[in-house]
Amino acid sequence: MVIGSWLEQRSGPSMIEYLERVGIRRFRDLADANAEDLQHRLNTSLGRADINAAGLRALKKLIDALRAETLRRVKSPR
């Protein structure tokens, strides 16, 4: 499943573009990601240290939110 609309509710267009740039296109891609590794991949891809400490915190929050949402959906009967 594509994560664009989910990300749009929690992040800006730049973050969506950055994540797509390094191959993060599905929920599973982001849920399985390590924020520090992702920060390094993004900065390497951009050719500059654009994802700083605040950006790293934002990545961690996105990953945590996605994992919590996934857990909630698994535990919640439909």
Can I get a quick summary?
It contains 5 helices and no strands. It has helices at 4-8, 13-21, 27-31, 35-46, 53-75. It is mainly alpha-helical.
Tell me the layout of helices and strands.
Blueprint: H1 4-8, H2 13-21, H3 27-31, H4 35-46, H5 53-75
Would you give an account of this structure?
With 78 residues, this protein is mostly helical. The protein has one domain (4-75). Helix content is 69%, strand content 0%. The protein has five helices and no strands. The radius of gyration is 13 Å and the shape is elongated.
Number of helices: 5
How would you describe the oligomerization state of the chains in this entry? single chain
Structural class: mainly alpha
- Relative helix content: 55-70%
Provide the gyration radius in Å: 13 Å
**What shape does the CA trace take?**
elongated
* Count of extended strands: 0
Overall number of structural domains: 1
Distance between the termini: 19 Å
Average pLDDT for all residues: 88
Order of helices and strands: HHHHH
| Strand residue percentage | under 5%
Give the biggest beta sheet.
Answer: none
Task: Tag the structure with descriptive keywords.
78 residues, mainly alpha, 5 helices, 69% helix, 0% strand
